[in-house]
From TrEMBL:
<protein>
    <recommendedName>
        <fullName>Cyclophilin-like domain-containing protein</fullName>
    </recommendedName>
</protein>
<dbReference type="Pfam" id="PF18050">
    <property type="entry name" value="Cyclophil_like2"/>
</dbReference>
<feature type="domain" description="Cyclophilin-like">
    <location>
        <begin position="5"/>
        <end position="113"/>
    </location>
</feature>
<dbReference type="InterPro" id="IPR029000">
    <property type="entry name" value="Cyclophilin-like_dom_sf"/>
</dbReference>
<dbReference type="InterPro" id="IPR041183">
    <property type="entry name" value="Cyclophilin-like"/>
</dbReference>
Length: 117
């Protein structure tokens, strides 16, 4: 299954990882989020409600990961790697591999997330 993220005129496609967290995230779609910048490596936003934490918890991420941030309950999309880990932990929901440049714009961006058709 694939997700489509729209950032301005750019479209990003991401492959969903099968987990309880990912399935719970899918139940929220479509989402329109104002995503702020965090550490100049990720865009993140609050979700309307907490997600299941039944996915694999990690402190590592890769560029293109769409992940659930714990304990904040935010969704994050990583557009750059700064060599650091995320001390509080992440559950990866999906992986994108291209068109991430739109996320690297300074400041907040409006993002629509839905299932890819």
């Amino acid at each position: 299954m694939k997700l489509r993220l729209e950032v301005g005129n750019s479209r990003i496609t991401a492959s969903v990882i099968d987990s309880g967290t990912a399935r719970d995230f899918l139940s929220l779609l479509p989402l329109q989020l104002r995503m702020g910048d965090l550490h100049r490596r990720e865009k993140c936003a609050h979700l309307p409600r907490p997600l299941s934490e039944s996915g694999t918890l990690t402190k590592n991420y890769e560029v293109g990961d769409l992940a659930y941030r714990l304990p904040e309950g935010d969704i994050a999309v990583f557009y750059r790697h700064d060599g650091q880990t995320v001390p509080t932990g992440l559950i990866t929901i999906a992986k994108a591999n291209s068109h991430l440049k739109a996320l690297s714009a300074e400041g907040p961006v409006d993002v629509t997330i839905d299932l890819a058709k």
